[in-house]
Amino acid sequence: MSGSDAVRGRVYAARYICPVCEGRPSEVGCLHCHGQGITSDVGGWDPEELTELPRPAGVMKSACGDCAAREGSPEDESGDTNRFDPTRPFHCHWAGMVEIEGRHVPIAQMPDGTPVGALVCAGWWDRLTGQDRPLASYREPRRHTAEGSGR
Asked: 98 in helix, strand or coil?
């Protein structure tokens, strides 16, 4: 875990196998990755030398067509930056939710409002891990209702 991320209360998300120990910290006593074998601290390394980690299973594989991270989304145009709060995951508004009267409502949620079973937004994950925004601009979704998915 990155010490600076922990101090700031940010979600820590490693993006690469550690290029120093190549994912074998106990063999070499690696201090670069703090013994984890994974890191996002790769400044100065040639991108060709890096091995990217897979996206966690709890994160959408790619941004939805109407992802809040896409250029031109209502959230983007409103300046709503809460969806990219690095201290708390932003959940995809399609995964594990239904649309009721224009609002995305979790089918189940924890006492703090965290949706149960909802996947983390791919756009939020990409921003957290320093990846580019989705290339395609926002597009209006098909309707998603309690009767079935509109995706």
From this structure: strand
Could you tell me the pTM of the whole model? Answer: 0.71
Beta-carbon contacts of residue 112 (< 8 Å; ≥ 6 apart): none
Q: Where are the alpha helices (DSSP H) in the chain?
A: 3-8, 25-28, 74-78, 122-128
32 and 2 in contact (C-beta within 8 Å)?
no
Q: What is the pLDDT of residues 116-133, one digit of tens each?
A: 888 898 988 988 888 877
Least Cα distance to 15 among 48, 38, 34 occurs for 38
Domain boundaries, the chain: 3-49, 55-151
Q: How far is CA 112 from the centre of its chain?
A: 20
